[in-house]
Amino acid sequence: MNRKTIAVLSIAAACVLSAGTAAAFSSLHEQQEQSRAVQPEDDEPAPAYWLKEYNGRLAVFERGGVDPVRIIDLDVRTLPPYDRGLLQAGIAAGDRQELSRLLEDYTS
């Protein structure tokens, strides 16, 4: 092999190595960002209430509760698909004031 071919191959190998390293760091950074988004902040208190769908109705659950503490006569099928999805997953309310605001939003 002549010098020119060796130089070109060396440059190509360096480019491939650099691109691979950049991709690995980018992937690692993306994974770290995703894990931060899923995990709640340590100093953030757990929500006191959850607003969820229960037997087709809007219901209030207390933290850790299995049975609703209040069932609102609102057929969730009448809500937009986005809101129904939120209620399937559960909407957190940190305190009574936030719970009241959410209930007002859904019932007015």
TrEMBL record:
- At the top level, the lineage of the source is Bacteria
Segment forming the signal sequence: 1-24
UniProtKB keywords: Signal
**What's the protein here called?**
Bypass of forespore C C-terminal domain-containing protein
Q: Which organism is it from?
A: Candidatus Merdivicinus excrementipullorum
